[in-house]
């Protein structure tokens, strides 16, 4: 049809036209796409840089009409007698493109989705926001959606439009502040970001997608369209057999791993292993060592490797450093196939200030607080999530569920809980804002944790949540309905600090600090605790576990063996950071590998074998499991022998159907004929002594011991045994 230019631009004001041309228009669908005007259909497309455009009938493929140049900046328009399905044939300087028109599609997100996003209860957020490969009206492409309520204009940019924010401006769904656009003929693997013009007309640095499910590996920063094809899992047996309560009652021994430094390929430029290689190397190793779980330092996408993942920006995307999202799913699948659970460290406390990330995402303090007294962590130079916003709470909860549901992860260890619970955390007077009652408690964080744990346990009843919480906040592991935060387990930071402080002392001084090792049992059952010897204890000048130990080389190894066995005998679930199980000499370096070469030395092999045997007895003996969370499963055999620096623990199975005696001698002096009262008459069998020669010890062993009718420690019968120097022994008792 021959139509005047004025008719092609009918109804479009001068200001609106220039706003579109300059990339400031907030409602591109009001100009672009098909519009009824004067009894005809006018189609407008804005394609800066295009040389020519033809309107193609979708059903027949015939050329209906060429587009006219409505504005030399790249606005084209064509008129047809009636509305029809159509495509665009675009001539670019370097080739031809045939595609559907993004502005010919109707509304994409449903009203319920928008309502749930605003309410903060859309828990399948990555299936709604972000980039979703899908078909609309039979056309394959990618639906983009992003929350940016204070933006004037949002565009999706990528290789597909030369990163030109004028080409694909998005539609605003006003009720939720969400922008959406379907770009036809895109496929998984496309790189993209969002270009945002703020409320003041400023074009911000292009932003990565907060809900991207895949990202470029650092230092690149683009988001990537992830595949929507479901992963083919083979872990049905594992999934059906998961029972959170049964798991909590049993042995939990966690191997904490930084995926990038567990093993480096020195023949390939010191490169780290990818998920497939970790599946082949790490998984069999952990299974052989007898650990029940692998806990990964944060693998959510993060810009700075030196943060170890604790400053993430991509809370829905496995980092591209180790492969694709499908590769990570394969790793979890292989773990489950080997009978190993997977726990992820997850960081809802804060995020880095990178301009392409969440910081002032739409030009306003959207994810963070406006006031730095609430919104800035000076310790880490990071921004704090505003948990008073429904959308932010929903974003974080949806992230947690993403890992548990999409990736079959078995638990989340929540980082820096204490920093979230207190408004004055690491702040001086006058540098924080009290809550509405004038207190220091962060009431929004409290409610967030209660809601988070309630939702997780409702939707993922198998999943564990673990709190890294370093204060005496009450009820961390109590259910929300009882006033607690609802976590399943809390890291026992007090036990870790006290026990390391004790074991680092020269044995000659330990008798003066005996109570340091017994103090933990005063509060051991106030929460459900895990004993963590984590990455934080072997970095930043703290030295490795081995170098913390006093004495000469033999004593260092003996101290370490005794300490590890004491930890495995003590109530509480276990966590050990990689490298500690081989007595790595140097502290952890995230840019290097665990010092596996030390396994050429017998003393290091001995430590490794001991940890394997400790995991075995922990898994085999109900008496070493029941008392982890139940006070009736523990009592001191001797807690007051400070003179000899001897500690004795009795561990019981449920109904006292079995028992284990754990004795530690924290001096280099062997104790012969040491008498200890025991609860059952009969034969007690030594199952582990850390002084055994196969562990690198001197070989003082007890074997099987019969009780004697000599009262001791308030018990009617006792054992006379040998306590090797700097050693811990485990003896199993007779059946009652």
UniProtKB/TrEMBL annotation:
Pathway: Glycan biosynthesis; glycogen biosynthesis. It catalyses: Transfers a segment of a (1->4)-alpha-D-glucan chain to a primary hydroxy group in a similar glucan chain. One of its GO terms (molecular function) is 1,4-alpha-glucan branching enzyme activity. It is an enzyme of class 2 (transferase). Pfam families: Alpha-amylase, Alpha-amylase_C, CBM_48, GlgB_N. Residues 256-601 form the Glycosyl hydrolase family 13 catalytic domain. Its EC number is 2.4.1.18. The active site is at residues 415, 468. Gene3D superfamilies: Glycosidases, Golgi alpha-mannosidase II, Immunoglobulins. GO terms for cellular component: cytosol. One of its GO terms (biological process) is glycogen biosynthetic process. The keyword Membrane does not apply. Keywords: Carbohydrate metabolism, Glycogen biosynthesis, Glycogen metabolism, Glycosyltransferase, Transferase. The keyword Glycosyltransferase applies. PANTHER family: 1,4-ALPHA-GLUCAN-BRANCHING ENZYME. Monomer. Belongs to the glycosyl hydrolase 13 family. GlgB subfamily. Catalyzes the formation of the alpha-1,6-glucosidic linkages in glycogen by scission of a 1,4-alpha-linked oligosaccharide from growing alpha-1,4-glucan chains and the subsequent attachment of the oligosaccharide to the alpha-1,6 position. This is 1,4-alpha-glucan branching enzyme GlgB.
């Amino acid at each position: 049809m021959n139509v005047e230019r004025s008719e092609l631009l009918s109804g479009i004001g001068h200001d609106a036209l220039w706003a579109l041309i300059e990339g400031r228009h907030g409602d591109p669908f009001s100009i672009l796409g098909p519009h009824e005007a004067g009894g005809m259909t006018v189609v407008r497309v804005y394609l800066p840089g295009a040389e020519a455009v033809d309107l193609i009938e979708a059903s027949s493929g015939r050329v209906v009409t060429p587009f006219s140049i409505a504005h030399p900046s790249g606005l084209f328009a064509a008129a047809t007698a009636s509305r029809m399905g159509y495509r665009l044939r675009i001539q670019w300087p370097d080739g031809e493109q045939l595609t559907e028109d993004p502005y010919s599609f109707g509304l994409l997100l449903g009203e319920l989705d928008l309502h749930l996003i605003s309410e903060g209860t859309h828990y399948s957020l990555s299936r709604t926001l972000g980039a979703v490969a899908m078909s609309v009206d039979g056309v394959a492409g990618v639906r983009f959606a992003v929350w940016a309520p204070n933006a004037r204009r949002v565009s999706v940019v990528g290789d597909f439009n030369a990163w030109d924010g004028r080409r694909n401006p998005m539609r605003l769904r006003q009720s939720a502040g969400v922008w959406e656009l379907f770009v036809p003929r895109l496929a998984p693997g496309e790189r993209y970001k969002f270009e945002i013009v703020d409320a003041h007309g400023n074009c911000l640095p292009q932003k990565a997608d907060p809900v991207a499910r895949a990202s470029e590996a650092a230092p690149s920063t683009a988001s990537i369209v992830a595949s929507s094809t479901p992963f083919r899992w083979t872990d049905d047996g594992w999934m059906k057999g998961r029972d959170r309560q049964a798991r909590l009652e049993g042995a939990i021994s966690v191997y904490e791993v930084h995926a990038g430094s567990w093993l480096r390929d020195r023949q390939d430029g010191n490169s780290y292993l990818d998920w497939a290689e970790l599946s082949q190397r790490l998984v069999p190793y952990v299974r052989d060592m007898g650990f029940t779980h692998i806990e990964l330092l944060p693998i959510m996408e993060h810009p700075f490797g030196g943060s170890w993942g604790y400053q993430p920006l991509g809370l829905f995307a496995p980092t591209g450093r180790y492969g694709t999202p499908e590769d990570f799913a394969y790793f979890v699948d292989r773990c489950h196939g080997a009978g190993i659970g997977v726990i992820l460290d997850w960081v809802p406390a804060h995020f880095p200030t990178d301009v392409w990330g969440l910081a002032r995402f739409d030009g306003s303090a959207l994810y963070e607080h406006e006031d730095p007294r609430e919104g800035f962590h000076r310790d880490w130079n990071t921004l704090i999530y505003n948990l008073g916003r429904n959308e932010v709470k929903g974003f974080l909860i949806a992230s947690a569920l993403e890992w548990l549901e999409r990736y079959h992860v078995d638990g989340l260890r929540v980082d820096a809980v204490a920093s979230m619970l207190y408004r004055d955390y690491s702040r001086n007077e006058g540098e924080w804002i009290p809550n509405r009652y004038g207190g220091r408690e962060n009431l929004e964080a409290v409610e967030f944790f209660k809601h988070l744990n309630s939702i997780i346990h409702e939707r993922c009843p198998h999943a564990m949540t673990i709190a890294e919480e370093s204060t005496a906040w009450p009820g961390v592991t109590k259910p929300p309905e009882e006033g607690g935060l609802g976590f399943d387990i809390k890291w026992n930071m007090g036990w870790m600090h006290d026990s390391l402080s004790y074991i680092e002392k020269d044995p000659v001084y330990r008798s003066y600090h005996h109570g340091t090792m017994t103090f933990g049992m005063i509060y051991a059952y106030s929460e459900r605790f895990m004993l963590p010897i984590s990455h934080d204890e072997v970095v930043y000048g703290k030295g490795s576990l081995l170098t913390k130990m006093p004495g000469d080389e033999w004593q260092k190894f003996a101290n370490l063996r005794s300490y590890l066995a004491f930890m495995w005998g003590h109530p509480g679930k276990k966590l050990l950071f990689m490298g500690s199980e081989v007595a790595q000499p140097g502290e952890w370096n995230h840019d290097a590998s665990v010092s596996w070469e030390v396994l050429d030395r017998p003393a290091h092999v001995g430590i490794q074998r001991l940890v394997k045997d400790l995991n075995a007895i922990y898994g085999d003996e109900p008496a070493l499991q029941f008392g982890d969370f139940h006070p009736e499963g523990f009592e001191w055999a001797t807690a007051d022998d400070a003179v000899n620096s001897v500690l004795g623990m009795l561990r019981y199975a449920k109904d006292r159907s079995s028992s284990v005696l754990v004795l530690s001698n924290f001096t280099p002096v062997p104790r012969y004929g040491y008498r200890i009262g025991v609860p059952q008459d009969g034969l007690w069998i030594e199952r582990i002594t850390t002084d055994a020669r196969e562990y690198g010890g001197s070989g003082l062993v007890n074997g099987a011991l019969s009780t004697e009718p000599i009262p001791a420690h308030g018990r009617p019968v006792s054992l006379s045994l040998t306590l090797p120097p700097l050693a811990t022994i485990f003896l199993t008792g007779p059946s009652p």
